[in-house]
Amino acid sequence: MEQNKEEEVLRLVISKAWEDVNFRKNLVSDPVKAIENLTGAKIVLPEGKTLIVNDQTDKSKVYVNIPSEPNIEDIELTEDQLEIIAGGGQTVWPDLVNSLFPALKNYIVI
Predict the structure, then answer these.
(1) CA atoms within 13 A on the CB side of 29
(2) Helix axis angle, 31-39 relative to 21-29, nearest 10°?
(3) 51 in Cβ contact with 37 (< 8 Å)
(4) Cβ–Cβ under 8 Å, residues 34 and 26
């Protein structure tokens, strides 16, 4: 499988952050500058957007990121999800949770 340039940059940034504590600190404090200095890639964020990098390397903690609420107008469901909804079955919420928080389910006991 061929990876694109953006994936290569992301892999390089993550690898560098894992191995270089100083780079990781710079990445958290000024992510755009740190990424541009490391890769030479230009980071162009949409107007009004800010890039936030959180250091989640502490293995003694479980991290959960709360994503922004999706715009219902933009959500595209799979055929299986549409069939479930059309048939009055379960919601697609479990699929969404599993895709957003795959590791979290290992820590939930009901």
Answers:
(1) 6
(2) 130
(3) no
(4) yes
Domain residue extents for the chain: 1-61, 66-110
Residue 17 has a CB neighbour count (10 Å cut-off) of: 20
What's the one-letter identity of residue 72?
I
Q: How confident is the model over 69-84, as pLDDT tens digits? A: 767 777 777 787 777 7
Q: Which phi-psi region, left, alpha or beta, contains residue 41 (left: φ > 0; alpha: ψ -120 to 50)? A: beta
Choice among 16-30, 38-52, 56-70 with the minimum mean pLDDT: 56-70
